């Protein structure tokens, strides 16, 4: 709402966003508002290919197997590799990084030797898996809903548009702006959004401190899917991430 409210200059949306922040502060507890994220990777990263296949495995575990434990493990390993500034040359080398265990190290060795992973090859052979992963990229559609849609023969974005009556308002918005949500948010736009939020926070209490975290702090562009907002109120400080 903060993003859409600001971009559309909609006073009602902006007002609702401010209320949301104020309520979080008044409850004196941590609130999380999260959206789906893309891979913690970039082609400028020397380990981006490892990050890519780990993220693909993570999405499979979450969306198809619904195994959150493995999903988090793959994501953590991918994040560590994305933050590593030099090329990993072996699984043993990767094991030195936080979150990279024996299984992930073995997959890195396999990829370095063959250029692919047998597990991913099998996953990709199943069109159902690809369809579920695609549909879960639409904001508002989770693994359960995606499986339900695929079972009903809805496997592409075009199919979704033909069956819009099966979607909620949130999912319809996610479908309508799918391409926009896949694009990167310019740093300048995030700075403008920060200004809107900061004004609202300081209006509540000038003693509040606000920080935009994530890749914004390290001069990287965000995708809409990566946009995460955390509202945490503790010891007279409101922290927005």
From TrEMBL:
Gene3D superfamilies: 5' to 3' exonuclease, C-terminal subdomain, Beta Polymerase, domain 2, DNA polymerase beta, N-terminal domain-like
A matching Pfam family: HHH_8
Subcellular location as annotated: Cytoplasm; Nucleus
Cofactors required: Mg(2+)
Range of residues in the leader sequence: none
Chief location category: cytoplasm
Family of this protein: Belongs to the DNA polymerase type-X family.
Protein name: DNA polymerase
Origin species: Homalodisca liturata
Phylogenetic classification of the source organism: Eukaryota, Metazoa, Ecdysozoa, Arthropoda, Hexapoda
């Amino acid at each position: 709402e903060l993003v859409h409210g600001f971009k559309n200059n909609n006073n009602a949306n902006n007002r609702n966003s401010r209320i949301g922040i104020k309520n979080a502060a008044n409850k004196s507890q941590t609130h999380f508002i999260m959206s789906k994220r893309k891979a913690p990777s970039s082609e400028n990263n020397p380990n981006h290919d490892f990050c890519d296949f780990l993220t693909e495995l993570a999405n499979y575990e979450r969306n198809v197997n619904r195994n959150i434990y493995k999903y988090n493990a793959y994501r953590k390993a991918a994040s560590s590799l994305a933050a590593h500034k030099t090329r990993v040359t072996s699984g043993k080398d990767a094991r030195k990084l936080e979150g990279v265990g024996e299984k992930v190290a073995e997959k890195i060795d396999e990829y370095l030797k063959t250029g692919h992973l047998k597990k991913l090859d099998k996953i990709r052979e199943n069109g159902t898996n690809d369809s579920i992963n695609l549909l879960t990229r639409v904001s508002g559609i989770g693994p359960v809903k995606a499986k339900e849609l695929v079972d009903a023969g809805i496997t592409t974005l075009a199919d979704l548009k033909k069956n819009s009556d099966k979607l909620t308002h949130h999912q319809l918005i996610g479908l309508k702006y799918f391409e926009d949500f896949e694009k990167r948010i310019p740093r300048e736009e995030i700075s403008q959004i920060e200004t809107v939020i900061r004004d609202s926070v300081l209006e509540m209490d000038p003693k509040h401190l606000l920080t935009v975290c994530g890749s914004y702090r390290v001069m990287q562009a965000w995708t809409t899917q990566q946009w995460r907002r955390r509202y945490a109120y503790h010891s007279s400080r409101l922290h927005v991430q």
